[in-house]
Design goal:
single chain; 199 residues; alpha/beta; Rossmann fold; 6-stranded parallel β-sheet; 44% helix; 14% strand; globular; binds adenosine-5'-triphosphate; binds magnesium ion
Length: 199
């Protein structure tokens, strides 16, 4: 009985392996990807930074634009800048606390110019646009402007967009989209954001 189970398991695994191998062999296209990491669960920005670390490890040139300035400097920035990753962080303006729409818009536009410059340059292999989704949702940056910059970028350039509530048009434009669903978060039980984990 035990051996039978083992045999069946092995045969099933073999069939899966054959299918996966066939799909890997069939996937021959190589080009810059647009990746969207959205949803209300924790893990979007860390995923984006993880990919930047992965790319940098392979010697690719990466840039990061952060569209929301947190209270603390995130650990990834401290590490990745040392590894040659170029960072642009929204200087003033938008945080969850500010109420000044015009100032926020200006700050968003300023850092968006850096993003556009990178998206137009073949010097960047991978670009992370962290929390860009909110800028589009609040109309601080026009959707058309984002779509144009993305569609006209160099064909081998990879772009990662993170943030909740990603606009449908960007989801449609993307090659890979993951939605991280919140099941629970420590914060809901009164646990404060922790260094090295939350920023
Ligand atoms: P991370 O940067 O940890 O990957 P994220 O990018 O998915 O998180 P954001 O929506 O950008 O999440 O929020 C940033 C901060 O809010 C992080 O400190 C994160 O731990 C926290 N956070 C993320 N999701 C939740 C949630 N569902 N409830 C409460 N806090 C959250
Ligand atoms: Mg985030």
């Amino acid at each position: 009985m035990e051996t039978n189970n083992q045999d069946r398991h092995q045969a099933r695994q073999q069939r899966i392996k054959e299918k996966v191998d066939a799909r890997i062999a069939a996937a021959q296209d190589e080009r810059g990807l647009l990746i969207v990491i959205t949803g209300d669960g924790k893990g979007k920005s860390t995923s984006g930074f993880g990919t930047i670390a992965r790319a940098t490890g392979h010697g690719l040139h990466a840039g990061v634009v952060q569209f929301i300035k947190g209270t603390w400097e995130c650990g990834e920035r401290i590490l990745l800048q040392k590894a040659g990753v170029e960072f642009h962080v929204m200087a003033t303006g938008f945080t969850w606390e500010t109420q000044n729409k015009e100032k926020d818009r200006e700050a968003a536009q300023q850092v968006w110019q850096e993003a556009k410059r990178m998206l137009a340059s073949d010097q960047y292999d991978v670009i992370l646009l962290d929390e860009l989704t909110y800028m589009v949702a609040y109309h601080y940056i026009e959707l058309d402007d984002v779509v144009n910059a993305l569609t006209q970028r160099p064909s081998k350039q990879h772009v990662i967009i993170t943030g909740r509530g990603c606009h449908r048009t960007l989801v449609e434009l993307a090659d890979t989209v993951s939605e991280i669903r919140n099941i629970k978060h420590a914060f809901d039980n009164g646990i404060k954001a922790q260094k090295g984990i939350d920023w």
